[in-house]
Write a structure and sequence with these properties.
Protein name: Ammonium transporter
Number of domains: 1
CATH superfamily: Ammonium transporter AmtB like domains
Order of helices and strands: HHHEEHHHHHHHHHHHHHH
Pfam family, one: Ammonium_transp
Shape: globular
Function: Involved in the uptake of ammonium/ammonia (NH(4)(+)/NH(3)).
Number of helices: 17
Subcellular location: Cell membrane
Number of strands: 2
Largest sheet: 2 strands, antiparallel
GO molecular function: ammonium channel activity
CATH class: Mainly Alpha
Radius of gyration: 22 Å
Length: about 450
């Protein structure tokens, strides 16, 4: 009986503090999806505002239901072949005890699964920014359901599920550099290569209609990202979550400065859009790395991401792909940078004893990070393009040319974002006339 007594004594017990902390973190990550909707919604033209909001918001409905039915089981169930999980007891979440703990941790399974659910909701919403102005809402909703099932759930298992190939290889991804950002960025590239450019791309002005909305969305994302990152340690007992919290703030701040410095040198102005985009680039880049690097390393990662992502957003004009809101330039490039830079800046004193090249480690971790990046990128790119192709050839992915020109909000949602009809004669005329000849500052492509 002695061994059994020892095992019982050593078994984790439910921690009310960690459980409460993780529930708060889950709520913060949920807030990121509406925050993303505002961020994207402000960046599009007036006629596409509501559609952009809805493309993020619908993910809350679709992915939540799929996660309950089978998504959690596919992502975190018993491994099969290092590529997928499954646990029939988790189908419908019908056979999970209220106080049943997530293996090796002090939080209930229900808390872990709802935290991971918010990641699953956010990831397809990220893709939507690349497709602004031109995708049927029904086709988008079906794409979200299929993409979550065929791409996100398996990739989450690769990266975070016990037995997943990237997990077993030792790829470090603290909170989603590969599973979330590279995954979404590669998917965005795959889809836009299939559906093509917006009407008027590189010819008509397509400036953000509301920079205050963009800044509000960026602020909500920054706020929610503390739960996204610090919560991914699943507790608050050893200081690693606190390190991740600090590094999230530090890298984001550094990325804002890096983006703005590049923008000033390249374009001659410090823009609010650049500040908001730089913040998101820093958040993306520190997501995989923040538990493994020091605050000084976080500054370096932030500056590198701010500058290189600012440079990357211009590639769409050079290569001719229409990434409407720079999902590829920020999320794909930022996710790649953050994942690979672990191989250089990991200190061996954070989440593990793995050290990068700058801290006495060899190149092994860098090559592992490369394998994780390339594996997720290739799979998501190819499968997403195939899904978009099939949907385009069956129900059609794009709205009609007339609807795209007139405005996707009215065509798809029978609404408009701003209604000035009740504002009175003079006010209404001023409001409707303003877009014709606005007083604009110098345009900066960022």
């Amino acid at each position: 009986m002695a061994p059994a007594i020892t095992l019982a004594a050593d078994a984790p017990e439910l921690s009310a503090a960690n459980t409460g902390f993780m529930l708060i973190c889950s709520a913060l990550v949920m807030l990121m999806t509406p925050g993303l909707a505002f961020f994207y919604g402000g960046m599009v033209r007036v006629k596409s505002t509501l559609n952009m909001l809805m493309m993020s918001f619908i993910s809350l409905g679709i992915v939540t239901v799929l996660w309950v039915l089978y998504g959690f089981s596919m992502a975190f169930g018993t491994d099969s072949g290092s590529v997928i999980g499954w646990n029939s007891d988790w189908v419908g979440l019908s056979d999970i005890g209220l106080t049943e703990l997530w293996d090796g941790y002090t939080i209930p399974v229900f808390v872990f699964l709802v935290f991971q659910l918010m990641f699953a909701v956010l990831t397809p919403a990220l893709i939507s920014g690349a497709l602004a102005d031109r995708v049927k809402f029904t086709a988008w909703a079906l794409f979200v359901a299929l993409w979550a099932t065929i791409v996100y759930f398996p990739v989450a298992h690769w990266v975070w599920g016990a037995g997943g190939w990237a997990f077993e290889l030792g790829v470090i991804d603290f909170a989603g550099g590969t599973a979330v950002h590279i995954n979404a960025g590669a998917a965005a590239l795959g889809v836009i290569l299939v559906i093509g450019k917006r009407i008027g791309f590189k010819k008509d002005p397509m400036r953000p209609h509301s920079l205050p909305l963009v800044m509000l969305g960026a602020g909500l994302l920054w706020f929610g990202w503390f739960g996204f990152n610090a919560g991914s340690w699943l507790g608050n007992d050893d200081g690693v979550g606190a390190l991740m919290f600090v590094n999230t703030q530090v890298a984001t701040a550094a990325a804002v400065l890096g983006w703005l410095a590049y923008e000033k040198i390249r374009h001659g102005a410090f823009t609010t859009l650049g500040a908001a985009s730089g913040a998101v680039a820093g958040l993306v880049a520190i997501t995989p790395a923040g538990g493994a690097v020091s605050p000084l390393g976080a500054i370096a990662i932030g500056v590198i991401a701010g500058v290189l992502c600012a440079m990357a957003v211009g590639l769409k004009y050079r290569f001719g792909y229409d990434d409407s809101l720079d999902v590829i330039g920020v999320h794909l490039v930022g996710g790649i940078l953050g994942s690979l830079l672990i191989g250089f800046f990991a200190t061996g004193k954070g989440q593990s004893d793995v050290a990068g090249l700058f801290y006495g480690g060899g190149p092994d971790q860098f090559w592992k990070q490369c394998a994780g990046v390339l594996g997720v990128l290739a799979y998501s790119l190819v499968v997403s393009a195939v899904l978009a192709f099939l949907l385009d050839r069956t129900i059609g992915m794009r709205v009609s040319e007339d609807d795209e020109v007139a405005g996707i909000d009215q065509a798809e949602h029978a609404e408009t974002a701003y209604d000035f009809s009740g504002a009175g004669g003079g006010a209404a005329r001023t409001a409707t006339a303003a877009p014709v000849a606005p007083a604009e500052s110098k345009k900066v492509d960022a």
